What does this fold into?
Amino acid sequence: MSLRGVAIATTTWCVAALAVTGVVAGGANASARLPDSRPSWATPTALRAPVPDSDIVHARVYLPWRDTAGLAALTRAVSTPGTASFGRYLTPEQFRDRFSPTTHDVAAVTDWLRGAGLRVVDVPSDRQYVAVEGTAGDATAAFDTTLSTYDAFGRIMRAPTRAPAVPAALAGKVSAVVGLDDGAEAVPAVRPPNESPNGTTPAKVADPGVGFRSGTPCSTSWGEKTVTLPTAVDGSTTKPLAPCGYTPAQVRGLYGLGSGDTGAGQTVAFVGANASPTIVSDVTQYSRLHNLPDPQISQIVPPGIYQHPTTPKNDPGAFFGEQTLDAEAIHTTAPAAKILYVASSNANQDFDRSVKAIVDKHLAPIISISYGFGGESVPQGFVNSLNGIFAQAVATGIGIFVSSGDNGDEQTTLGTTSVDFYANTPNVTAVGGTSAAIVAGAGGSVFGSGAKPVAAAPTSSTAGGGIYGIDDPANPVNQPGWTRAFEVGWQTGFTTATGTLAPLPSGAAPPTSTRYAFTGSLDPAGPSFSGGGGGGISKVFPQPSYQKGITDGARDGSTGATGTTGRALPDISALADPNTGFLVGQTQKFTDGSYYDEYRIGGTSLAAPLIAGMAAVANQKAGRDLGFLNPRIYAAYQQKTASLYDVDEADLNSTAEFGTTPSVFRVNFTDTESAAGGRQFSLRTLELPTQSLQSTRGYDTATGVGSPRDSSFLTVLGSVTPLPYTPDRKSPKVP
It folds into this structure.
């Protein structure tokens, strides 16, 4: 998810391993256990109390694909130039005929589950799983285990006390049971803007999320406003005020997207928790305020998914911001593409069902996912099952783009460095994050002298953004003519500033004044890590062949592991830092009512949909669906194409004005709505030098191969010869 207030030439695809222990008991009661369906964090020392029998449980019982060797061969063939099958992807019907579990096996599993007292919610048309729900008591009896709570990752979570079991007659027909634990709630890889999902069933539509506005003063472009500090930091007392939030025109300028780069004829799908009832009106109003065409957006609820719009751990409404961000980010980089939102009912717990709905029916050739698990401590059965869906996507020509995470190397949250699941899977494109300085025109100054003027007054409407007229379509910030001054890896440091902020010259008011003075002090302890793009080396998945010879020297923070030992991520990066973030518009709940407003937001859940939208432009330019892009991305990198921007802090010229390390001075409203409730100040250091993830020349675990320099990269993706594809069918080992 996103941050605002804190603001594969070869892929390895892993067969859903049939890790089944020996048959236990005897006769009609004989059963086979599934050890890969129990999380490693459910230890005896963490055990707390039994789960009440009346609690509701949602689970998926996965069946293995048929002919996994054949599926590996197919994914290789459709991705390897020179083969007769190159680019000839299977249709959903062809995939089902060759690889889906048999109807006989699915019927056997379904009959058993119903007989055990569970309600069958749905079975996808490719028959990969049977989704069920029931009480904890029903699940305990059905899977011959008990459900208890555990204290892990600072949260109380549910898990089975021993590996679930299936009848011995179904051994080999069931690969995993997913959903008995709620580990998806443990440590989210990406952070929510304000925690909350909502549904669209008529009787259950939640209030909008709590209102948030970007603190002012803020800059309309990089360096448009500055603040003078009482003491020098990194060699300078002058710092830029954080941007109010970059507009679509500015972001399109950052990546050199021209008027014809629209994603026309494409569909980009994304998944999220539940569904905002105002998403269409919000994105439409946003588009009209910022000179984008009206969106072609729809949202669907796959069969059985939308049963429970609320859960005890999630307030319906908090995920509205995530859904809005994804839609408006996709619409920014692919304004003519259709946008499809597929809802998940149970927060983080059943996103696999949403992804499956898109892949199973090939609803879109591109999928953006802004969610994930913090770290890799996920039951292997779930890893294998979800990666099986991703392999299906590769075989059927779908490209999936996943946020790499918002916790940097995870040292702060997990106590050890780690990459995050789903992004670690080699059948997806992991999208990391950058901090960006966007200025006016070719050669615009990093220090704001090239910044364009802004409207002279805020909007008069209460419900319209109102940040110095940024929501005015005539404002230059909503017109073409913007460009990149620099990008660095997103690894932000936070230093509290205590004091007051006043405009210079004395008495001048925004927006005519662009200079401010801060009187007070900065925390002498200096910056502490506050958020950054995920990256590193997987301990679960081996290095995919499309990374061989490219990520070999990449390092995984403090562990010293290199890319030769595991799958390195991210693959590519885009704007993510909420301190140089993106302006979004959304209906929110303020103290004076609920209405549309605008605010700055960030996170790799901004980066992923931005890149997904650019993938739609790449398909548009190529005149065909390019499918899984990693073999093409790394081939383009290997050819040293100038169309990639090497995100490297060394690209910055040290200056006396802003200092040797880029940073921004940020203002937050204490009550999140207005200055009337007070203001909070901080200095945000971009690419904190003490973090293990740092951008360097070439591939690095902070930003991958870099970011698109301009739209020529999207042309290159369609013309470059992808690297060879040789899938590894061995299952990963989950720690």
Remarks:
- The first strand starts at residue 23 and ends at 24.
- The chain has a mean pLDDT of 84.
- Residues 23-65+100-174 form one domain.
- The two ends are 25 Å apart (CA to CA).
